[in-house]
Amino acid sequence: MRNKKLAFVVLGSLFAALIFVATLIHLPIFSTQGYFHLGDSIIYIAASMLPFPFAAAAAAVGGALSDILGGYFIWAPFTAVIKIMNVLPFAAAKKLRKNQSKRIDAFTIAACVVSGIITVGMYFLASRVIYGSFAAAAADIFGNTIQAIASAVVYLIFSAFPKPKFFNELNKKDDKNG
Question: What is the pLDDT of residues 29-47, one digit of tens each?
Fold first, then answer.
């Protein structure tokens, strides 16, 4: 049991680093002064492979750290909460899925859609708080929508490949964690 938890901590840390790097590699969206990245696709991957608490921690740390080191300090607390919320639909999909070996199904697609809605909606609210204006917050909707769609597409492409056996074995031994 202890070694399994250690494995999840190490994998969660690895995913946090991957999320951080994928989020820092960004293309600017000039209309919003924000940026577009594929870090969310790594969050979706982590959420589909790790138990909730480890995936949520990786998402929060990787996303918030990229904001802090990328110069978007004010966004870090919002990002940490939003990225944890992005993990929730994938955790629910894992619980609802009867055939755990199936990677792409209605639950997976629904998780992508719900997570995208969370991204767009929650960043709209965060923008409203930060900018103090609904009009300024509305300007972020387009970029966040593109980011959510691109992240879902990358995730679904990744999901077409078989899950590494290591993750199956790790999650199989103790279903309480996954």
Answer: 666 566 678 899 999 999 9
- 46-86: pLDDT as tens digits: 999 999 999 999 999 999 999 999 888 999 999 999 999 99
Helices (H) and strands (E) in the chain — how many of each? 7, 2
Cα–Cα dist 38/152, whole Å: 9
Say which residues have a Cβ less than 8 Å from residue 53's Cβ, sequence separation at least 6.
none
Tell whether pTM > 0.85: yes
The token pair at 26 is 């960004």
Other C-beta atoms within 10 Å of 171: how many? 19
Contact 82, 39 (CB under 8 A): no
Contact 166, 4 (CB under 8 A): no
Alpha helices, H only, 30-133: 39-49, 52-69, 76-96, 106-131
- CA-to-CA distance for 121 and 43, rounded, in angstroms? 17
- Of 146, 99, 87, the closest CA to residue 120 belongs to 146
Helical pair 165-173 and 2-24, crossing angle rounded to 10 deg: 140
Return phi, psi of residue 98, to 5°: -80, -40
